[in-house]
Amino acid sequence: MKLSILGPPGAGKGTQAKKIAKQYGLVHLSTGDLLRAAIRDQTPLGQQAEPFVVSGRLVPDEIMVGVLEEFLRKQMDGAGFVLDGFPRTLPQARALDETGRRLGQELDRVVQLAVADQVSVERIAGRRICPQCGREYHVRFRPPKVAGVCDRDGAELIRRKDDNEAAVRERLAAYHRQDDPLLDYYRKQGLLSEVDAEGDVETVFQRIRTALNGIEAAPRKRGRIATKE
Ligand code: AP5
User: 199, exposed or middle or buried, with CB in 10 Å at 0-12, 13-18, 19+?
Assistant: First the structure.
């Protein structure tokens, strides 16, 4: 199974992609996590991406397409995957199609998590991260046992650098500049499942599972690897 999860910032892409990966035995690629790790380690990719990520702007397509191709090449053993945060633009979607075709790694389904902007903002405002183990919390919806402290390792929880008001506004604007053409692109290919992502985490996950029902039983047979699943 090869999936992409789309949606505005705070829609729950990361939360749901982790659950999907566990449920279906897929590799999870979060381009946001990958960029944040590269920034933390100050790799060449991290240095290029940092000013974009911190201010909430999209990293240029040519950089992200290279990141994606490297990931797909590593998936050539046939393991399925769930992309979280890719593609974000039409050029990225076209590059994913083209590279996917070339490598036998075409998408079976694209899941769009739909939430209102005010829900995105509320979820992002309450998000807290453990700087040591990376575990994510939400002050209201997924609180740690002791406020401000990671349940696993006791580290003090922090906010993401791009979770400040100005960057969130820019991330939402960047999303809305791209979402219509991107969704149309996948709708026309018959790949798009639009899922209501308001409600608690388990309710949304069950909706996604329902949307994926068909492809669990009969994956889209386009690539060499897809026909094996
Ligand atoms: P990325 O890390 O992908 O950020 P984003 O798209 O802004 O999404 P978020 O991580 O904020 O939210 P999410 O939808 O994953 O929600 P989450 O599950 O965390 O990208 C960061 C940056 O990297 C971009 O701005 C850009 O600069 C760059 N970038 C990345 N990919 C790129 C690309 N392809 N091209 C160009 N640039 C790229 O949930 C949020 C919170 O809500 C959590 O606290 C969670 O616990 C809580 N929550 C989740 N679901 C629920 C629920 N159902 N009910 C209640 N609370 C919930």
Answer: middle
Ligand 1 pocket test, candidate residues 59, 130, 205, most atoms within 8 A of CB: 59
Contact criterion met (CB below 8 Å) for 92 and 58? no
Query: Cα of 13 to ligand 1 centre, how many Å?
Result: 6
Nearest CA to ligand 1 atom 56: 141
- Amino acid identity, residue 163? D
**Rg over CA atoms, the chain:** 17
Q: Which of 2, 36, 109, 171 is catalytic?
A: 171
Beta strand 109-114 with 2-6 is parallel
> Is the overall model pTM greater than 0.85, yes or no?
yes
> 3-state class of 185 per DSSP?
helix
User: What percent of the chain has pLDDT above 90?
Assistant: 84
Encode pLDDT of 137-155 as tens digits: 999 999 999 999 999 999 9
